[in-house]
Amino acid sequence: MAERTVADGAGRRLGGIESGRKLVSVLMSFDGERPVWTVAELAHEHGLTTSTAYRYVGVLREMGLLDAAGPAGAYRVTERVSSLQGALDAGTAALRDIAMPVMIRLRDEIDETVLIARRGGEHAYCIDRVESRHPVRLQFQRGEAMTLHLGSMARLLLSQMPPADRRRYLDRIEPTLTPGQAGQITEEKLAQIARDGFAVSSEEIDEGIWGTAAMVRAPSGAVPAVIGTAGPVHRLPPERRDEVIRCVVAAAEEITAGLRRRPGSA
């Protein structure tokens, strides 16, 4: 059977792989911030012709992943996508079970929000977080995709990315970087972060927020996750930061030890 192709917004023919990538991108447009989209909005968002966007929506409806919602021509995801959440929870359950008691103790010790994250492709994702008793507004919510070059947690994960993949990622984002951002993700800086096993950041994602993170290692030596904390700079002044780094590194080591006692957990 001949491979089906569709056209993108510029009229170019797309093969199966690129078409599949676009289809997934359309599905991933639906999130908590934007749960309903029209076909016209999806076409504009992804640079597709309206007819191509209709075909993608049709496939997703046929698979039971999208359904009509509210205004005419608008769509939402269906309950079928909850199976993906179930698969995600099952895949990270052991890591979260080991990490959560450590995260709670770390939160109590430093009295700041504690997060654990892992890399998926070219993004960092928050697996779980334990909130500080103090009010703090952080963008890194559970399940949210963040870039790999901003913030201490993401930069640690970037330092562990396979070199060829990392180079492609850096080459792609280079035109969007400020000089300060570019200076934080040189190969030399990333190599130093990998050796240190921890990283720090200041106001890279959220204004007025300082953070630090440390690597969690699997029995194989790979880095399945990073644990970190972040809080307002007025609660984390320079004289307190070395102690917070020490606590976060110790927490990462404790989770690492837990993973070693439970083979196959990461």
Automatic annotation (TrEMBL):
InterPro entries for the chain: GAF-like_dom_sf, HTH_MetabolicPath_Reg, Tscrpt_reg_IclR_C, Tscrpt_reg_IclR_N, WH-like_DNA-bd_sf, WH_DNA-bd_sf
Pfam family, one: IclR_C
Listed transmembrane segments: none
Example GO biological process: negative regulation of DNA-templated transcription
Keywords: DNA-binding, Transcription, Transcription regulation
Domain IclR-ED as annotated: residue spans: 80-261
Molecular function in Gene Ontology: DNA binding; DNA-binding transcription factor activity
Name of the protein described by the UniProt record: IclR family transcriptional regulator
Source taxonomy: Bacteria, Bacillati, Actinomycetota, Actinomycetes, Kineosporiales
